[in-house]
Backbone:
């Protein structure tokens, strides 16, 4: 696994997700702030993002966003949604 630059929209300014967190856009849509991270997107990190539910959205990289979408669709399928 390699280091990646991630950009997330996140609505909790007071709860950093990772030590590399840098604010890049304040309240971009009145509820979320955009942050940049430099990290290896491990299974544990993805699980943390899933735990946060609708409070977080992966904007970049596209491949991580796609992985999250796939995981969420599989979860919805488990509940016949």
Residues:
């Amino acid at each position: 696994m390699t280091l990646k630059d991630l950009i997330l929209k996140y609505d909790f300014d007071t709860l950093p997700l990772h030590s590399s967190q840098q604010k890049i856009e304040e309240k971009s849509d009145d509820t979320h702030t955009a942050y940049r991270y430099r990290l290896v997107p491990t299974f544990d990190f993805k699980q943390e993002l899933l735990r946060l539910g609708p409070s977080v959205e992966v904007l970049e990289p596209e491949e991580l966003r796609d992985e999250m979408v796939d995981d969420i669709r599989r979860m919805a399928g488990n509940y016949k949604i």
Summary: The mean pLDDT is 90. The longest strand covers residues 4-10.
